[in-house]
Amino acid sequence: MSAPHQPLLPGDSLSFEKLFVDSLLFRGIPQSQLASWAAELPVCSLEREEVLFSEGDAAASIFFVLSGAVSVSTSDASGHPLSLAQHKQGDWLGEGALVKPAIHHATASAKVVSQVLVVPVERLFVLLVTPESRRTLLEELLFRSRPKPVADVHVQENKDGSGETVFILRHPKTNAYFRLSRAGWFLWKQMNGFTTQDTLTRTYMREFKSLRPDFVSSLVIRLTAAGFLEPVILCGELEQERASDSFFQGKRSQTFLQRLASWRWTWRNADPLFQSLYRNGGRWLCHPVSVGLMLLVGLLGLVGTGVFYSSMAGSFQLHSVLLLWLVPMMLLDTLLHEAAHGIATQHVGCRVNGVGVGWYWFMPVAFVDTSDAWLASRRSRLWISVAGPLVNLGLGGISAGAAIFASGSIQALLWQFSLSNFLSVLLNLNPLMKLDGYLILTDVLDRPNLRSQSFVWMRTEFPKVWWKPQELWRRRVEGFYALGSCLFLVALVATIVVLHRLVFVHVLTLFVSHYIAEVLGWVLACVVVVFSVVGLWTEVFEDGAPS
Fold first, then answer.
1. How far apart are CA 144 and CA 85, in angstroms?
2. Higher pLDDT, 528 or 222
3. Quick one: three-class SS letters along 378-408?
4. Do strands 165-170 and 81-88 pair parallel, antiparallel, or not at all (unpaired)?
5. Which of 66, 51, 50 has its CA nearest to residue 13?
6. Phi, psi for residue 41 in degrees, rounded to 5
7. Best exposed site among 31, 61, 354, 384 by fewest CB in 10 Å?
8. Are strands 363-369 and 354-360 parallel, antiparallel or unpaired?
9. C-alpha distances in angstroms, 366 versus 260, 339, 467, 526?
10. Candidate from 51-60, 495-504, 512-521 with smallest mean pLDDT
11. What is the per-residue DSSP string for 273-323?
């Protein structure tokens, strides 16, 4: 870090300044403050091979090597000696004092006659008062950390869209999933609780001929945030600093706006239910003959519904009481749609991690957690995504066929139900919302995080390159998707406002005066607009961290 110098004596502030003035850890701290601080601290002299601290000792201080060299070692799982690091003049060690529990996780001893400056942790935090200095300390701790995977992580090898091998990790308890490239898999295999990030970076460079400390750090942070690496709990001050910094979280904490725009409740013990459904008839839904019949009936029903609404829609009136029957019919429609996703998941050999209900922007939603499909092939994931809309298509066709043989208000109700199913197919296959169509698109393009990546690019990179046609064309997928999503939301909100007011006001007039129904209709329209704006805002400006 600095030029060689004479051995430091206690209170020798000039030598201290020469040693630490260029340290990133103390950047921005006045030299006079450093000198005053150093004069009050003890210096420990060590003979060759003398132990500074032993593995398992309580840790309350960190140590700066003022002269000489200090070796840090431990024992591997077989009890053989394992050298972890060599600290030379200007380096610091003893990071065990900055984590919980505060114990040393290795043994430090002098390689030659050495002197170390002893810095109690409480004194360190008195000096590191600036956010920059504490963030630097966090980064150094991260670089020195020894990532260790949690036990029993399941690994599945797959192929991506270009035929490259990828590796899918599944957490044994949370059922979280994480996809690794070949480079990420190489690093994952090196993580054993003994290898530091510094060593990982050097190993990566030897293997791939590229120096990428940013890639290594980002991977460790994201794996830790997802629960695949054992967490390192820092001492109070640093833990607060880490919790307030989105970089060290791997993702941003959910804000009030995000909770307002999107909320979910999940029942986790759903797999036995779907196993039973699949065994007791559900498997026939996945048979090619059943798929062909649903497609045929659905397409014929779509044509019939189009002909009816274009030529005969004005020749009948739906009774207001029968209109209310659409509510339970739509609930049944949603139930069958989600059940189809779950049955398809069982068909490809994956488990259903849960079912639930929630709120997405301005709409109540039900869902089936089919995340286990990440362990399956792209073809299997596509089938799972298509299964729900396919059932809606079949239901719409069946309802249209039944309407042909009905009459009066019953016929009108069946036509309405048929139309709602076809609109549901259209909505679910729209890739500009995070529904089935989006999942299909991400599998086709092999871009699992397309939506978040597009919004991050639009917010951070587009303002810098909008005048560069070549760069815009290179990132055309992100650009078109982000722009299309925003324009679609504007059109959808306008449509929903009109339809909600028309239908909502029509139903309310059965119970209240027309004036009150109109007021409530406008209130609902305003709620739709607010939730839509909040939903888009959170996706563009608050979901920007890598996932």
1. 10
2. 222
3. HHHHHHHHHHHHHHHHHHHHHHHHHHHCCCH
4. unpaired
5. 66
6. -100, 145
7. 31
8. antiparallel
9. 17, 10, 43, 24
10. 495-504
11. HHHHHHHTTGGGGGSHHHHHHHHHHHHHHHHHHHHHHHHTGGG----HHHH
Q: Are 490 and 533 in contact (CB under 8 A)?
A: no
Classify residue 38 as exposed, middle or buried by CB count within 10 Å of its CB (0-12, 13-18, 19+): buried
User: Which two tokens mark 222?
Assistant: 């994201």
Q: How far apart are CA 155 and CA 287, in angstroms?
A: 29
Query: How confident is residue 342, by pLDDT bands cut at 50, 70 and 90?
Result: very high
Average pLDDT score over the chain: 80
Task: Give yes or no for residue 12 having a pLDDT over 50.
Answer: no
What tokens does 538 get? 């959170």
pTM of the model: 0.70
pLDDT of 97-118, one tens digit each? 888 778 888 899 999 998 888 8
- Positive or negative torsion for Cα 463, 464, 469, 475: negative
CA Rg value for the chain:
31
Helix-then-strand count for the chain, H and E: 22, 16
Nearest to 232 by CA among 146, 304, 306, 309: 146
Length of the chain: 547
Bridge partner list, 123:
none
